Amino acid sequence: MTDRPDLQGLPLERKATLLSGQDFWSTPPVEEVGLPSLVLTDGPHGVRRQAGDLTGMGITDNLPATCFPPAVAVGNSWDPSVAERIGEAIGREARALGVHVVLGPGVNIKRSPLGGRNFEYYSEDPLLSGVLAAAHVRGQQAQGVGASVKHFAANNQETERMRTSAEVDERTLREVYLPAFERVVTEAAPATVMCAYNKVNGVYASQHRWLLTEVLREQWGFDGVVVSDWGAVDDRAAALAAGLDLQMPSDSGAGDRRVVEAVRSGELDAALVDASAGRVAALARYAGGPADGFDAAAHHALARELAAGCAVLLRNENGTLPLSSDTRVAVIGEFARTPRFQGGGSSNVNATRVDPALDAMRELAGRELPFAPGVGDDAAARRAEAVALARDAEVAVVFVGLADADESEGFDRTTIDLPAAQVELVRAVAAAAPRTVVVLSHGGVVSLEGWHDAVDAVLDGALLGQAGGGALADLLYGVANPSGHLAETAPVRLEDSPSWLSFPGEQGRVVYGEGVLVGYRGLVTQGRPARYPFGHGLSYTTVATSDLRAEVTGDDTVTASVTVTNTGDRAGAHVVQVYVSTAAGPVRRPSRELRAFTKVGLGPGESREVVLELGRRAFAYWDVVESGWVVAPGEYAVQVCADAETVLLEETVTLAGDELARVLTMDSSVAEWFTHPAAGPALVEALTATMPADAASPADQAVMLQMIGSMPMRRFAADFGSALPTDLLDRLVAETAAARTAP
Ligand code: BGC
Fold first, then answer.
1. Per-residue pLDDT reduced to its tens digit, 226-263
2. Right CATH number for 543-655 from 3.40.190.80, 3.10.290.10, 2.60.40.10, 2.60.40.3500?
3. What is d(CA 442, CA 403) in angstroms, rounded to the nearest whole number?
4. What is 309-504's CATH number, 3.40.50.1700, 3.40.640.10, 2.40.50.1020, 3.30.830.10?
5. I want to staple 406 with a disulfide (CB 3.0 to 4.6 A). Which of 207, 258, 293, 402 is the partner?
6. Given 23, 79, 125, 229, which residue is catalytic?
7. Which of 520, 517, 516 is nearest to 530 (CA)?
């Protein structure tokens, strides 16, 4: 690794060249200080190193690399070791391909099931997204290859992504849309953070000082490079002032010239150029040594192993799965022969090889299995052919899903339905076959309605990467035991999704009207059942959960322990999901929020005690008055759940939390004054002293207080509060200010 080069002696113009790319994918060298050019390429689930010269976008002409399971699948693994091992392997390939920063992972929250890029993101839950992304970054950077956590922030749709303004209140940003970034930054120190294309509350993310400097650097301590998404810079000088270091790709020096002019005219402080150029130069620590090759066969095998941990067994009636090698199976559906394994757009990897599930199933069965594509030009004939095979089989395994053209970066979907021909195929096969298994391939979530009840088992692969076909065969035949869980709710109806009313916005704005009630948080709070809730996933074994203990270890911390026992006869991995539920505090809380999880391997009959720490943030909400995280004193239910809808065990704890005493002003309401722990009793005492003997009863006073409770004290005191001396009020204002303890 190269030490941080000293830029001090360089003229302004030269330093400014470091603030933008020299072409589409690399930074400029600065030979006089020994600074090499660095290559940044996509990411996130494999290296997309453009072949040939780097002057253009070249989405399709890329060097071969392993296509690992995309984030949609890694999200379903609930397993940071999957993310970490993918990061490590990508790091190895990047070094071999001469890449210094791989642009990933993406941690935007899946706000809507329609999000066109949901395949590239982990989850609708910020904890799950953050834990997995931090593991990916750790793995990749341990190989000496920088990461770029993206797209910061509130880039939750593709529609008008370069112009729309995400209108999000601060509590929602802090609780839902920022925590995954925060966790990656504070736990894994990524080399770069990529700002989003969109505006956030009216300001381009690339020019958003609050986001890029106050939150990211000052509050979270980020000291790496903020890089623009490709083409996200609108006003280069404003972006630099806001905290954006590196503009990508090259704009032929226009941005750098603008920066120089702005410094010369006094519009920009030269220190900003020094700081940003210095940070870009410090990326040289990722310059790496001589590139080694990578072992493509070993990485393919790794991709298969990891993919098996990502698929979700949604349904398995009467032990239909696993198949045995002598089960008479008919394989149906073009996706069995031509896998759909990754999403479209900038993340599209040129895979080193692709395993069709059909071949892998034949290998495991040890014989030829009949196959019919089921769909095609003459749909009816294709369907009839598939139905004939299904009728002769014991089990029909039908591969359906979304095609490449149905979803991609750059546009959102308009429906979650499977294509009609695929639904008809499933229904026709299910009517003919003794038993039917559906295998799903898709990036964004798909509806299971109209066919779900007619089939016996559903194995949801989402997108599993280049070795996904082999992994699906391993799972279908029981070589591997399914252990994935949904990282995104599968709703009954698209309309049930909490963001439905305001996605994707209109006339340049998208109002995040559901607030913090995103995904399962909204559905569970409203009591709307999903087809399959967030967190759902079956296994070929069974696990019993017992002996939950929740021990309060401080004012706002709890240790939860629970015993999990594999009660079946197969080894399996089990995810312990811990949620917290509370009504404490002055804000509406989601009914339940995921606050800790871990995946544990259990042999047949094995029992383990799992201990999970719930820190302060597991109980906190973002308080806009205090401008900080607050743990409200009160009761909190610690729930071990099978999924977001199903509580298995629950323990309630009482937390001391934070002193919520507010500073009172004359604009505080009468109710705030009277309920204030210090000022309230003093006021009551003052009032009681002036009251005649026949004053209102305490019950009448309570009704009165309710009636006038929302009046600002200023007006109450002026118009009705003659019994409240001004000097008393002034004294209490001063005392509450002095006594305030910030959370
Ligand atoms: C995408 C980024 C990507 C970049 C470079 C942009 O369009 O939003 O995720 O890293 O292009 O390909």
1. 999 999 999 999 999 999 999 999 999 999 999 999 99
2. 2.60.40.10
3. 8
4. 3.40.50.1700
5. 402
6. 229
7. 520
